[in-house]
Design a protein that fits this description.
There is one protein chain. By secondary structure, the chain is mainly β. It has 2 domains: 136 residues, Jelly Rolls (Sandwich), CATH 2.60.120; 297 residues, Glycosyl hydrolase domain, family 43 (Tachylectin-2, Chain A, 5 Propeller), CATH 2.115.10.20. The chain is built from 3 helices and 34 strands. Strands 1, 2, 3, 27, 28, 29, 30, 31, 32, 33 and 34 form an 11-stranded antiparallel sheet that branches. A 4-stranded antiparallel sheet has the order 4-26-25-24, with helices on one face.
């Protein structure tokens, strides 16, 4: 069980806490010295020898596009490696590792080839065993008209690969297609678009996405601030990455309408030397310490000029603390959040938190479908040894000497009190339940 605070479906109670976006840290940038990477690019994979290879598409001053590779020891600082292929009037939509099918097709490259004469986009598929040598799969089309931005992840709940993509050239909304063998694909199914909570005239440009534990995280790219008028939304404008989430990879919900990744902040200016109106996350990796690394590119020019002029795009690496997407934040007056009922399977609770002071109390849920929630002796806030600091895995301890592991087999409610800080997640060996399901567990009717 991992409780993330994207919404309050996980909570019985929330007081004095504000939901806020996480704080990705820009930790590295990459330029190869001869290519402009002003659009979505930067796909990173860990090789069998422990090194990391990044593929990225770069535009030359003669306006030809090529796919390059770079190599790294730590997956953060890269050095140019080799040219991989030329991409003629085409954009790399996504690159994904597939260990389930044939080894000679371990990597899939989804390419969007533009047929401007007939105003069509062909979704071609290339395969490789090493990320360097690629072969086109003749007769295979992963889309009929969609352009980037695209995301691909393996969906463990559906036993297939899920592609998040646009439905057609110029149509700015997101849907999904699925495949198990990369030859056959389900029909396009819409899943997300801009809505009334966005700023006026905002458009959803695309959504790279990835699996995170038993959830799926998307980064919807919102296009805004373009030149106003009765014409297509194309000239000028900015793109920032927001957050979305899904339990099954098919049906998605938007989160806060504040940017998660932005090139319009002071941190980006200091790290790259310029504000970056366009931010394009493209791939994701969980580092050995559990932190999330996001790779993508950023342009110093706005939409439109970024595609028509040679510029100074760079590839960025952002680091996010484990579970650091959304937090509940408390001020000096403090706040409290309580979970819904949890069928506890044993072991201790782990809390990802940064706070001046925090304590945890444990209650037991008893009764029927409208249960009483009663304190458990030895597990009150006054019994909890106060926490102060920053930890991704704080294990609450109690002066009574009791352990949460003792409560195995019972339906529990965990209540966290904190001040001057943020809580990102609660984790442990349990199942979060709604009231009727919890009553079935207590009454052994499941």
């Amino acid at each position: 069980m991992k409780i993330l605070f994207f919404d309050d479906s996980v909570s019985f109670r929330r007081e004095g806490l504000t939901r806020v976006s996480g704080r990705p840290e820009l930790i590295a940038t990459y330029r190869d010295g001869h290519s402009d990477t002003s659009w979505s690019t930067g796909h990173v994979f860990r090789l069998d020898d422990g090194r990391f290879r990044m593929l990225y598409q770069g535009r030359q001053k003669d306006k030809t596009d090529r796919l390059y590779s770079a190599i790294s020891i730590d997956g953060i600082r890269f050095e140019p490696e080799t040219e991989v292929m030329q991409t003629f009037d085409a954009e790399v939509a996504a690159i994904v590792e597939d260990k389930l099918n044939a080894p000679e097709e371990r990597y899939k490259l989804l390419l969007c080839e533009y047929g401007k004469l007939h105003m069509l986009v062909r979704g071609s598929l290339f395969v490789s065993s090493d990320l360097i040598h690629w072969e086109r799969l003749e007769g295979v089309t992963w889309n009929n008209g969609s352009e980037p931005i695209t995301g691909v992840f393996y969906n463990t709940k559906k036993d297939c690969f899920t592609i998040t993509m646009r439905p057609d050239w110029g149509v700015r909304m997101v849907g999904v297609r699925e495949t198990r063998d990369w030859r056959n694909y389900t029909d396009y199914q819409p899943c997300l678009r801009s809505d009334a909570l966005d700023q006026p005239l905002d458009e959803l440009y695309g959504m790279p996405a990835f699996r995170y534990g038993d959830k799926y995280i998307g980064l919807p790219l919102i296009y805004r601030n373009f030149e106003a008028g009765n014409h297509s939304k194309y000239w000028l404008g900015t793109i920032e990455a927001f957050l979305a989430y899904s339990d099954d990879g098919r049906y998605w919900l938007r989160s806060l309408r504040t940017p998660f990744l932005s090139g319009l902040n002071e941190e980006t200016r200091k790290a790259t030397g310029a504000f970056r109106p366009l931010v394009w996350p493209s791939s994701f990796r969980i580092d050995d310490d559990g932190s999330i690394l996001i790779y993508g590119s950023a342009s110093e020019r706005e939409h439109g000029p970024a595609f028509s002029e040679f510029g100074d795009g760079c590839i960025c690496v952002w680091r996010v603390r484990p579970d650091g997407f959304i937090a509940l934040e408390a001020g000096s007056d403090g706040g409290i959040v309580s979970t819904r009922e949890v069928a506890w399977l044993g072991g201790e609770l782990s809390v990802n938190i940064m706070a001046k002071r925090a304590t945890l109390a444990v209650y037991e849920s008893t009764g029927g479908v409208l249960p009483d929630v009663n304190p458990i002796p030895g597990f009150g806030h006054n019994d909890c040894v106060p926490f102060s600091g920053d930890a991704v895995n704080w294990t609450p301890a109690f002066s009574s000497g009791r352990k949460i592991d003792e409560l195995k087999g019972r339906t529990l409610v965990f209540e966290l009190s904190l001040s001057d800080g943020r809580v990102y997640s609660l984790s442990g060996d349990g199942e979060l339940l709604f009231n009727v399901a919890a009553a079935r567990v207590r009454e052994k009717k499941v």
